[in-house]
């Protein structure tokens, strides 16, 4: 199991939130988000996972290299590392005795790419919610993530991953009949703001009702 930052670990967690950072970052980069979520969900384990490989950028970590990445080869890079991503989720679920029904995957940038892609590359259901922050699919999704709600949150000023990728993915999933939402945040770049935190809290509180 790859290293991780444990932000909250109740003795008997009712839910597991796994967070996945962007390329060149560390688990600490999502600490503020995790701490905010932990305050609202005290019965929830909140874990920020470290990607397994050293980043090509010279600092931080990555799931796959973005050197030379193109629209044509991105999916192959994701597929190659996906078994490690899935194993990480399973390991934490087993460690904390939490099922997919009570697991939430939150990814930022490359972390979101991995979380989203897990709903298409494998038939196995891994989570009740996948929350994409500044993320995208490699290709337009073609199947419904059974039993998994997919939420897209994206800044309209993102210079790294254009928000149109998220909007197009949302539209495709919606047309397939998936449970999905799309929120475009005004004046937000490739980062996370408090509005997104509040939206995530609302998603999860609504699912508890």
UniProtKB/TrEMBL annotation:
Protein EC: 3.1.1.1
Keyword Hydrolase in record: yes
Keyword Ribosomal protein (UniProt): no
Signal peptide (from-to): none
InterPro entries, per the entry: AB_hydrolase_fold, LYPA1-2/EST-like, PLipase/COase/thioEstase
NCBIfam families: PRK11460.1
Protein name according to UniProt: Carboxylesterase 2
Organism: Vibrio palustris
